[in-house]
């Protein structure tokens, strides 16, 4: 289901409405060319990355470059190295753990507050909502945030990658709007008549009805944690195992072998061709996103439309 | 996507009925009734208190000669001395200008691209083509900046794919990814690659909410394709455009850190220094000290606050809803 | 986004109220309070000799005398043979404490389960010192944060060059570290004979004043590392590649340029140079340290001298002529690997790369020979060689330790100070025989694979405390070669105009210096033109350069009367 299916519903699939005139062949050609070029500009680099990650040293030397468009042979050496239990494996596991743990925590915070703030008129509703909304207007600044992490003793602790970004006020407000506008009030009233408390109502009625939007919000959180880079640079410079984006950055920036800094090489001493290994890490950072993508996409467009139409 | 919710007509009856008159009850009664809601909200509020409001309060050290080795209240207040020092710093103004430059460039070039993409897509009839294309173009939105910069260096860098083709044809290496003069264009390509598809999705959703009968009526009246676009399509998505513009302007100084930090070595600090990197390199890992960096950050925060209020006000005057309503 | 229905409380007025309150709160407080001037980050100057509270020096007689006798510290003596080690400490203490010391680490940190660490704990008398190893590349900057947050375990090891990363190190020292004065004052030769044998200058350089304006508040805050001298860095040439190209070792900057042009081949991926930033100023007679020279009755900074332009011209020339690896500006080039591969012919590195190259190429079987360039100069001037004379590093202990703990750690430091020719030295520097090293044909210890990864780490217990005297050691040929190299450059050694004082520049000066480095790179990598230099220097002067000159001139006058 795509975002535009709704618009298409009233008419037959793949049919032009009767009132719409046929565009000129030139218009069609230009449009097609534009779309093809645009898609190619996105797909080709990704394809080259994947192709290179499976290349052998020999194939790369023959191609005389760092990136291949056409793989001539298949080598899994780069992937073997990533998963051999060394620094890269640790980094991937760490990032996975952060993503899973962080997303779970974020969802708990977001669902709780979105539901808690979804009853205008409840005790302290307005001031609490204001506290949330004010975060849209002002940013506390890089240094004070850094200082607080330090004061809490979270500097050089993995918690500093999760806790400061655990709540996204934007997601909270989106979910709150959904709870307020898309869960029929009759259902909630019926539940209350049956003597169900707020917790029961939340778990038995509201959440099951909100699966799509929850999936989308979870995706946003998960992608945020998976892509952690800046927080790691800022908050955990002293730790050995760094999130995968940091490792990738160090690898990218060095021409020879892995992580940039001169003496660091031994840690990642490799057998596979450098560019294959780099690209294999790139593939590893893309794959989880690509795997989740189709599942979420289904809900995603639905949620966007819900947001857009129901407001 | 939440942005869209405000632009749409107010919610049907449901939302309104839910507001109950509870004010006549005492606080104790309301507490007895609402404690589960408060309890559910509490963890999120605790997070905000610790990681938003507490650091916000720490901004006070921008007015102090702060040292981490003194008890807090023994740090002397110095008024706006740090701000004076900030404006006297020859790298602050360039960083501010760079920030504005990239912010406005992003606004000016990326918005139209997203809108054009959305319009083109909107006119494609085949659902298969549409869903395939959509899936492809907004995938990079979920990629990290590290990944985007990696891909760009591998393809367009001095030892990248294109450079090697050029060498093969007897040409010279490309210096595109390390040339400060063309960095703005490089940055724009990166935005286009990473974010244009996402913008397209938002505008597509807005386009989808335009009532098709409007088009039909216009077509029956003999309005051409272009006239229909001008008189129906664009006004239809105007609220969304305005809303996104305001959001962008509010966050205009938040151009991001990663894209610039990651390319700092390659392109040089003059071109890539924005306010956030300024704070990081001068204060967090530099020797200018906590108060200096805090002053720079606070300056940025206050300007951002003013910008969003002004932008919203302008939107109201133009008859748009903006991000919050008039009372 | 924020208004799901028109009953939402988020209306403009209330929002303004919230925003306004915050702004008033932020702006009001400082206005009410008295306004003063910024005092922090003004820089300090600290005398490092003439104290009466240092440990009394008592010579610790060496078990074996070096066979190559130089003129320490800039021309250290060396050993070309490996003596039979003798124990240095007769009365081994009986301790049981555990310490965690934060140290920089370049490369992979060895496992703490290795028998090396257990053996050291046992031999030292039962003290376990665990290393908290952090990335050496970011260690200097990160240490600022650890110290601010008091999160560095029981102590931290800092190299002297790392102090420059701190906005105000003097303040950090006196607030974060244990004041050792009362413990080490006077005669300590009874309990810590090796520490008493450290040069008085070492202890003098471990002094910071609690109040920088008052010399009476000076105290000992760190355990000094070795007092060493001589050139710390060199430009290493791949002599085998030069020979193959029919080129001789260059002896002047002009010759070097010719050689570089002859060996570089951009299209085929070979370049003369990788990094050239930090050693090359000396070829043009520019000062080391913080960049000050005393010329015609006043202090002049490198960037104000005509030679500065010459130096940048040189860096720009080699860039424009493609004699430099094109990816150098990315800042993360692995120069050592490229040097081993012959992709770059001249590698700027620490002096230990000489031995490192031999060790690594032998292990990898790749071959090649290197040698450092001698004292080069341009335009027939007298050469200048920057030397690092002074304490290499300090171990600072956390102020929260108890007196007994500090004393126990000093027992351990005493153990680590044992010099070449002692069993303690052998254990700390080579590990356990059979496990980490074996004796080679000439009697010198040779690392095996485990030894290379565990014991040969650049920083561990061997740098925790200084040796009573620092020697050249290693394979006989290397010792001989380094000895001769030091002899050949020692006459050109730069004289430190701040001898006897540690000057910490004002924060402005440091920050202006950082900017200058960024701008130098812009010129060197073709991102800015040489014509930008005068403006750069003016900016530098206005934004910390002149403040720096005042500060350093005051220090200079104090020293030289």
TrEMBL record, chain A:
How is this protein named in the record? Putative aldouronate transport system permease protein
**Chief localization:** membrane
Q: Which Pfam families match?
A: BPD_transp_1
Q: Which domain of life is it from?
A: Bacteria
Enumerate the Gene Ontology biological process terms: transmembrane transport
Record's signal peptide: none
Q: Which organism is it from?
A: Glycomyces artemisiae
| Ranges that cross the membrane | 32-55, 92-116, 128-146, 158-179, 212-236, 276-296
As for subcellular location, the record says:
Cell membrane
Record's bilayer topology term: Multi-pass membrane protein
- Which family does the UniProt entry place this protein in? Belongs to the binding-protein-dependent transport system permease family.
- Which residues belong to any copy of the ABC transmembrane type-1 domain? 92-296
Q: Name one GO cellular component term.
A: plasma membrane
What are the record keywords, sorted?
Cell membrane, Membrane, Transmembrane, Transmembrane helix, Transport
From TrEMBL, chain B:
Residues forming the ABC transmembrane type-1 domain are 96-311
Q: Which residues cross the membrane?
A: 35-54, 102-125, 137-157, 196-215, 236-257, 292-311
Q: Please classify the protein's predominant subcellular localization into one broad category.
A: membrane
- Is Transcription regulation one of the keywords? no
Question: What is the topology of this protein in the membrane according to its UniProt annotation?
Answer: Multi-pass membrane protein
Question: Its Gene Ontology biological processes?
Answer: transmembrane transport
Keywords assigned = Cell membrane, Membrane, Transmembrane, Transmembrane helix, Transport
**Pfam assignment, any one:** BPD_transp_1
**Which Gene Ontology CC terms are recorded?**
plasma membrane
Q: Which PROSITE patterns match?
A: ABC_TM1
Note the InterPro entries from the entry: MetI-like (IPR000515), MetI-like_sf (IPR035906), UgpAE/MalFG_permease (IPR050809)
Keyword presence, tRNA processing: no
Q: List locations, semicolon-separated.
A: Cell membrane
Q: Note the superkingdom of the native organism.
A: Bacteria
Protein family membership:
Belongs to the binding-protein-dependent transport system permease family.
Q: What name does UniProt use for this protein?
A: Putative aldouronate transport system permease protein
Q: Which organism is it from?
A: Glycomyces artemisiae
- UniProt lineage: Bacteria, Bacillati, Actinomycetota, Actinomycetes, Glycomycetales
From TrEMBL, chain C:
Q: Which domain of life is it from?
A: Bacteria
Similarity annotation? Belongs to the bacterial solute-binding protein 1 family.
Name the UniProt record assigns to this protein: Putative aldouronate transport system substrate-binding protein
Q: What organism does this protein naturally occur in?
A: Glycomyces artemisiae
* Lineage of origin: Bacteria, Bacillati, Actinomycetota, Actinomycetes, Glycomycetales
């Amino acid at each position: 289901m795509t975002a535009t299916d709704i618009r298409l519903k009233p008419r037959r699939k793949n049919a032009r409405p009767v009132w719409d005139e046929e565009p000129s062949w030139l218009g069609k050609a230009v449009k097609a060319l534009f779309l093809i070029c645009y898609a190619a500009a996105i797909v080709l680099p990704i394809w080259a990355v994947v192709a290179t990650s499976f290349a052998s040293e020999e194939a790369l030397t023959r191609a005389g470059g760092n990136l291949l468009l056409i793989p001539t042979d298949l080598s899994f050496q780069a992937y073997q190295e990533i998963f051999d239990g060394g620094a890269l494996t640790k980094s991937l596991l760490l990032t996975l753990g952060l993503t899973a743990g962080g997303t779970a925590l974020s969802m708990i915070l977001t669902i709780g507050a979105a539901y808690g703030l979804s009853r205008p008129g409840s005790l302290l509703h307005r001031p609490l909502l204001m506290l949330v909304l004010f975060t849209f207007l002002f940013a506390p600044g890089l240094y004070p945030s850094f200082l607080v992490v330090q004061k809490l003793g979270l500097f050089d602790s993995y918690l500093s990658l999760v806790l400061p970004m655990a709540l996204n006020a934007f997601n909270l407000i989106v979910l709150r709007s959904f709870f307020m506008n898309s869960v029929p009030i009759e259902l909630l009233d019926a539940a209350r008549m049956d003597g169900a408390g707020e917790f029961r109502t939340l778990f038995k009625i509201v959440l099951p009805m909100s699966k799509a939007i929850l999936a989308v919000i979870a995706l946003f959180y998960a992608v945020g944690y998976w892509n952690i880079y800046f927080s790691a640079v800022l908050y955990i410079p002293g730790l050995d195992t760094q999130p995968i984006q940091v490792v990738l950055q160090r690898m990218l920036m060095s021409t020879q072998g892995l992580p940039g800094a001169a003496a660091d090489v031994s840690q990642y001493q490799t057998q596979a061709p450098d560019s294959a290994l780099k690209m294999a890490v790139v593939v590893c950072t893309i794959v989880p996103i690509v795997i989740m993508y189709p599942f979420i996409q289904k809900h995603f467009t639905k949620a966007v439309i819900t947001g857009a139409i129901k407001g | 996507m939440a942005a869209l919710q405000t632009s749409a007509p107010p919610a049907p009856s449901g939302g309104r009925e839910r507001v109950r008159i509870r004010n006549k009850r005492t606080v104790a009664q309301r507490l007895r009734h609402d404690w589960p809601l408060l309890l559910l909200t509490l963890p999120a509020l605790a997070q905000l208190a610790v990681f938003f409001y507490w650091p916000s309060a720490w901004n006070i050290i921008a007015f102090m000669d702060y040292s981490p080795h003194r008890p807090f209240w023994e740090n002397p207040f110095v008024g706006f001395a740090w701000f004076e020092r900030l404006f006297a710093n020859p790298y602050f103004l360039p960083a501010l200008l760079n920030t504005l430059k990239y912010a406005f460039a992003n606004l000016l070039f990326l918005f139209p691209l997203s809108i054009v993409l959305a319009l083109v897509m909107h006119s494609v009839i085949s659902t298969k083509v549409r869903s395939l294309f959509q899936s492809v173009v907004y995938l990079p939105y979920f990629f990290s900046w590290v990944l985007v910069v990696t891909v760009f260096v591998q393809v367009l860098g001095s030892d990248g794919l294109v450079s090697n083709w050029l060498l093969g044809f007897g040409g010279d290496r490309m210096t595109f990814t390390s040339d400060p003069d063309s960095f703005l264009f490089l940055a724009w390509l990166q935005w286009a690659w990473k974010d244009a598809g996402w913008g397209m999705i938002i505008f597509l959703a807005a386009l989808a909410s335009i009532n098709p009968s409007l088009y039909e009526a216009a077509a029956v009246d003999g309005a051409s394709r272009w006239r229909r676009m001008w008189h129906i399509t664009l006004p239809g998505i105007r609220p969304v455009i305005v809303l996104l513009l305001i959001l962008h302007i509010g966050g205009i100084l938040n151009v991001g850190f990663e894209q610039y930090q990651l390319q700092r070595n390659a392109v040089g600090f003059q071109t890539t220094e924005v306010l956030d990197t300024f704070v990081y390199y001068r204060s967090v890992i530099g020797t200018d000290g906590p108060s200096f960096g805090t002053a720079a950050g606070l300056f940025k925060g206050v300007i951002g606050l003013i910008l969003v209020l002004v932008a919203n006000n302008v939107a109201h005057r133009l008859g748009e809803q903006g991000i919050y309503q008039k009372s | 986004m924020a208004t799901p229905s028109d009953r939402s409380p988020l209306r403009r007025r209330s929002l303004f109220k919230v925003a306004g309150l915050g702004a008033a709160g932020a702006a009001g407080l400082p206005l009410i309070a008295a306004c003063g001037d910024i005092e922090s980050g003004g820089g300090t100057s600290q005398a490092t000799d003439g104290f009466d509270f240092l440990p009394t020096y008592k010579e610790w007689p060496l078990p074996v005398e070096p066979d190559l006798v130089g003129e320490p510290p800039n021309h250290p003596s060396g050993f070309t043979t490996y003596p039979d080690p003798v124990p240095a400490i007769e009365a081994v203490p009986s301790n049981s404490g555990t310490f965690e010391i934060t140290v920089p680490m370049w490369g992979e940190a060895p496992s703490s389960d290795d028998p090396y660490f257990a053996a050291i704990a046992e031999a030292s008398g039962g003290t376990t010192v665990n290393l908290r190893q952090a990335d050496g590349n970011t260690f200097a900057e990160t240490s600022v944060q650890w110290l601010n947050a008091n999160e560095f375990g029981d102590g931290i090891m800092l190299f002297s060059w790392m102090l420059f990363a701190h906005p105000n190190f003097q303040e950090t020292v006196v607030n974060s570290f244990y004041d050792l004065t009362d413990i080490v004052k006077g005669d300590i030769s009874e309990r810590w004979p090796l520490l008493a044998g450290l040069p008085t200058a070492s202890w003098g350089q471990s002094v910071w004043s609690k109040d920088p304006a008052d010399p009476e508040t000076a105290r000992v805050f760190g355990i000094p590392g070795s007092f060493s001298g001589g050139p710390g860095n060199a430009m290493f040439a791949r002599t085998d590649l030069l020979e193959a190209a029919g080129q001789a070792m260059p002896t002047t900057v002009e010759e070097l340029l010719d050689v570089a042009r002859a060996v570089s081949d951009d299209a085929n991926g070979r370049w003369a140079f990788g990094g050239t930033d930090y050693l090359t100023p000396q070829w043009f007679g520019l000062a080391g340290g913080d960049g000050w020279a005393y010329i015609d009755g006043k202090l002049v900074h490198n960037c104000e001298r005509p030679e500065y332009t010459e130096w940048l011209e040189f860096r720009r020339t080699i860039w424009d002529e493609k004699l430099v690896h094109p990816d150098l500006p990315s800042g993360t080039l692995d120069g050592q690997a490229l040097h081993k591969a012959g992709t770059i012919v001249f590698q700027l590195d620490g002096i230990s790369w000489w031995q490192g190259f031999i060790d690594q190429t032998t292990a990898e079987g790749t071959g090649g020979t290197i040698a450092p360039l001698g004292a080069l100069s341009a335009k027939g001037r007298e050469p200048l060689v920057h030397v690092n004379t002074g304490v290499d590093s300090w171990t600072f202990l956390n102020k929260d330790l108890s007196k007994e703990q500090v004393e126990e750690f000093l027992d351990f430091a005493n153990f680590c100070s044992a010099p070449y020719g002692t069993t303690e030295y052998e254990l700390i520097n080579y590990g356990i025989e059979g496990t980490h090293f074996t004796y080679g044909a000439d009697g010198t210890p040779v690392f095996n694979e485990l030894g290379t990864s565990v014991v040969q780490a650049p920083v561990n217990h061997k740098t925790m405390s200084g040796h009573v005297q620092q020697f050249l050691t290693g394979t006989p040929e290397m010792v001989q070669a380094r000895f001769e190299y030091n002899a050949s450059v020692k006459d050109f050694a730069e004289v430190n105009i701040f001898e006897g004082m540690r000057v910490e520049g004002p924060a402005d000066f440091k920050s202006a210096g950082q900017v200058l480095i960024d701008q130098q790179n812009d010129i060197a990598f073709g991102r800015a033109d040489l014509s930008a230099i005068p403006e750069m220097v003016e900016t530098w002067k206005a934004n910390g350069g002149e403040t720096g000159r005042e500060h350093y001139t005051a220090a200079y006058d104090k020293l030289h009367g």
